[in-house]
Amino acid sequence: MRTNDIDNIVVITDILRRNAALWPNDTALVEINPELEETVSKSWKDYELVEPKASEAFRREMTWSDFDNRANRFANYLISRGFGPGKKVAVLLMNCLEWLPVYFGILKTGAVVVPMNYRYASDEIKYCLDLAECDGLVFGTEFITRIEAIKDQISNVTPLIYIGKECPDFAVDYESTVAGFPTDDPRIERTPEDDAAIYFSSGTTGFPKAILHTQSSLLSAVYTENRNHGQTKDDCFLCIPPLYHTGAKMHWFGSFLVGGKAVLLRGVKPRWILKAASQEQCTIVWLLVPWAQDILDAVESGEIKLEDYKLDQWRLMHIGAQPVPPSLIKRWLKHFPNHAYDTNYGLSESIGPGCVHLGLGNIHKVGAIGIPGYGWEAKIINPDGSEVEGTSVGELAVKGPGVMKCYYRDKQATDAVLHGDWLYTGDMAMRDEDGFIFLVDRKKDVIITGGENLYPVQIEDFLRANDKIKDVAVIGLPDHRLGEIAAAIIELKPGVAATEEELQEFCKGLPRYKRPRKIIFDIVPRNPTGKIEKPRLRQKYCGDSLVAAQVRG
Fold this sequence. Notes:
Layout: H1 3-7, H2 13-22, E1 27-32, H3 34-40, E2 59-63, H4 64-80, E3 88-92, H5 99-109, E4 112-115, H6 122-131, E5 136-140, H7 144-150, E6 160-163, E7 172-173, H8 174-178, E8 195-200, E9 210-214, H9 215-229, E10 236-239, H10 246-258, E11 261-265, H11 270-279, E12 284-287, H12 289-301, E13 316-320, H13 326-335, E14 340-347, E15 352-357, E16 371-372, E17 377-381, E18 394-399, E19 406-407, H14 411-417, E20 418-419, E21 422-431, E22 437-442, E23 447-449, E24 452-454, H15 456-464, E25 469-479, E26 483-492, H16 500-506, E27 518-521, H17 534-542, H18 547-550
């Protein structure tokens, strides 16, 4: 990468312009739909290692020139409809080849882009459109029914732009409409201080909050990710998590900066992930804990044979979005001993992952979330804001170029977490004698039993070391005498049996006060970014008695 190219980057759309100029014919993005391939082609289990020659039906790609041209066409269409600075356009799409050109097309108009969670029900979609004051919406096939149910209630959101086949009569067809617009770059001037994007919180305490970021914030994520993981033009990034979330996109930003290829995989089955990495020669794969665990389970059960795949080029596996059990990484390195490993911590409020990360050279500290990432600072604080002493537990606070501007239209919530330049994360953490930060738990997930603080993550990590356990979530259940007790919801591996007594015996390896008082066998629900949905578990097992788990904090 040329030094002067970086010097000319002011906002993130400058990178796309530069990539299209420097590498117009190089592949920028590939979309793979393995489920579709399995319905129209031979079984993936029987494939031979060949250069990828997949059908356009399940493998699509675009060059950097295509990417830029598509973004420009969409920008020019929006501008013709009156969009520009001060306007907001929501994006409600599953991962697809159109997603990122739409995102950058919106940014090229000077409007604010508003990615939305594809799991939102109709009422949540309306709520978020209203909260962010959206003026337009881009949506895909999967959301026709949900949008149709609220179209009369969101009449102020226009146009409704549809991507897919058989456009509904209440929407504008993206492909046929945008195709007629020029590929000239609109060159709408933007400054680093201008508003750029609104992301939504995970909604773990009710309806989501709208998180406003500036152009500078987006650009900072590019440099933090590239500095943390050293992506080069020769790297190929396998992107599996949803693009609406900061985690997936901001990890891709590191490859975006250097013009590296990225593969969007629509599916998370172990054989799909390994085949995509093999055929597309991916060098960097970001996984969530459940996906990594599923790969290991498939390998160890014999369902998958690693020698069937070409994986020598795979150099980095990294994980984020949730606490990572050390036992998982030890298992991973047993099967993939040559992989570099990193774990990445962040929040949508800190423009995604990287404000804290383990670092590629710190494998000996597996279990820690690490040290501040490039451009970031971190501290651990008491309730009064003072820093804790030694290795005591406190709330993690971070400061850096990617801290949000505010919760949009919610001053009270903003004031609760922004204190000067510092963002109070709501995560409880401790720092060891070497300066590495360990995540202890979410502030609101801490269980207080008989006056003693229990941190569910510590109990969960211990239980995951049991060979019979696939996943576990620890929550507090109301108790008349102790206030709360710890309950472990256990999801066993397929085909495995265990009793409550057996697991209670296993838990004798914990200090007595940390042992769960109740074992429940059930599925552990996780959201699209891999986080355990503890509010769902509390609702299921606490019913109306949510006070103990939700009123605090």
